[in-house]
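#dry-run=false #mode=assembly
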Amino acid sequence: MLDTNIGENEILKKEINAIDGEKNKVSYLAAQDDNDAKLEFLKNFTEKESRDKIISSLEHKISPDLFKIVYLAQRMIKEFLKDVYTKIPEDKLEAVDITFNRTNIVFNKLPENQNLEVDIKNKTMTILERRRHNQGKLLGYVLHGYAHCFSNRDSKTDENFNEVLEEGNADIFTDLVVNNYLKKHPFENLGFHLDKDYSIESAYLEENSIIRTRMYVLEKLKIDKKMLLEYLLGDKEKYIKNIFNGGKGNEEFDLNEFYEKNQFALKDINRESIYYRKNTILPLYILQGKIQNENILQKEYNSSEIINKYFNYEKINKINADELDEVINIMQDTNRIRDNLVDWISEELNSFTDMEKRMSSDNILENILIVLKYKKLKNDIAKQTLEVIQYLINDLERNVKVERSKELIQKINDYANNIEIEDKQLEEDIKDSLSYLKIKLEMSNEVNLTPETFFNRLQSSLKSGSKIERNEELIAYQTIKEELNISKN
Amino acid sequence: MESNEEIIEILKNEVKEELKNQVSETSLGYVHVFNKRLEEKLKEKGIEVKKEDFSGKLID
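#status=ok
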């Protein structure tokens, strides 16, 4: 096969040599069928016009159902390049055009569980036929596929194939290209919906985490996108030299070493960054930044250990609930911390004496409500929660000042409805108690609480469908007025 | 006694079920997560796993 190609190329070479004038040579070459031959002879021409003519003569096939998505993807890529460079380097622009003009993109059947296949020998991207209906996903497939085509445009073997670099870079390329376009064309009707913060649907979590962490650091040097394009469209050696400081690029990513080397760039990590999405490493670095005295990057921890380290082994009666919320929230962004929140809160509650629970019922409850934001309560925790609520109500009835009553009211408002306990009677008791506690807190907090608002809230907190009889309503109304010390009309 | 093919089919269904709420079948790279999990299960059962040679294709 190879010999035949060489033979055919020799014949073509002779034919081209026999033609006078570059224009005629180019026209003859452009009229050939074989893309590989055209690209083989491309190096003989240096004039831009000649090269463009040969590149635009390359042939490819696109399934008609994919026209719209493929040309949108191409527009998006070109626009991204334009925005990364002041002037797009000619070699990179050419690499893009060659890829666009010689890559077939088709729907077809694929082996089990595959959605996309990029055949780098035959320059064909195949998308699983039955994925044809979701345009947003198709766009992601095409862009991810193009990234592979760019990156492997000259590859023939897997000699230097590195899955982390290949898949992580293809995914972040897709996200950057789409988001750049959406930002610049917020009102363009694409004919289908794309989320404002678009993110490709991908199972390459580890690959994305490593690449995006590196990109986050490179962004501080303002070379992130240029380096990505160097990998895809330029010189991989140059990319690897820059990213791995002379290393080969296939070493395991060392969490601790990378953090130590890049501490400055990893200060105050921005959770809104595109590189924070699909990234399980940066959340860990945020936590490490806040836990100064201990290293959490050298082994896997569970959430209770992280909370303990973060709060210097304080118990929940001393922990600030908003800070706890922040820590748990960050931990939710990574799968590198084993989740044992429910066990943790249970152990914490079991470790208190009754007296401790009475003394710090407000703080304990506020922290339980934070855990409730993320988790379902087990029966044993629910029973203890009910106890804590009761202690707090007792305090309020004895006019004991609750310091963070406003915050507590807010959390009851936000999370009381999340409560879901196996024992439904217990669930109802907790919800009722929280509702009552909230009113008591509002009263103690001197929020403008009138009998009317109290009564309305009482009614709305009752099960739907139940009714208060008129005489009961009048008695309740009178009682509340007296309780609130409002003079009778 | 089930044949290896039958065991593989059973294990494939198990993996599919396990991944149902973790990774979407339409996501890029699903096939790799699937194969990795399947490979682990096959190893547990003592079934040899053949690694495919690079065929010039990138699979997602």
